[in-house]
Amino acid sequence: MATIQRFEDLEVWRIARELALDIYNETLIAPFSKDFELIGQIRKSSGSAMDNISEGFERGGKKEFIQFLGIAKGSAGEVRSQLYRALDRKHITQEKFDILIEKVITLSKKLSRLITYFKNSEYKGFKFKDQP
């Protein structure tokens, strides 16, 4: 794995950011724009995915990072479920649903791989850099 200096360097964070923007843009379009409850939920969960990746990274420890990656994965699952509701309510087309679902599934898979990588890694985190 390449050396990561900032959370912005993480592919999973960039995918989560793109997903959050895609979700935001979709919720601006009618009829989705009228379902205020679902808008709030899906915007929060998509934002939570990217925010938890960044927060976990910034905490500087492997165990905390793994924990926050797991929370981000859970948020991605929420987005996935909420996209089904948006589709069922005819807020988005099947084509848009397929695009967004593919993106969220990709994010979930990459988060799973990153979690596995860190669980099997000797890396302790940058906050432990000076410790033996």
Write up this protein.
With 132 residues, the chain is an all-alpha fold. It has one domain (8-120): Up-down Bundle (de novo design (two linked rop proteins)). The chain has four helices and no strands. α2 runs antiparallel to α3 (62-88). The chain is elongated and about 50 Å long. The two termini are 22 Å apart.
How would you sum up this structure in a few lines?
With 132 residues, the chain is mainly alpha-helical. The chain is 71% helix and 0% strand. The longest helix has 27 residues, at 62-88.
Layout of helices and strands:
Elements: H1 11-27, H2 36-59, H3 62-88, H4 94-119
- Might you state the CATH topology name? de novo design (two linked rop proteins)
Number of helices: 4
Our Rg estimate from Cα atoms comes to: 16 Å
Largest sheet: none
Backbone structural class = mainly alpha
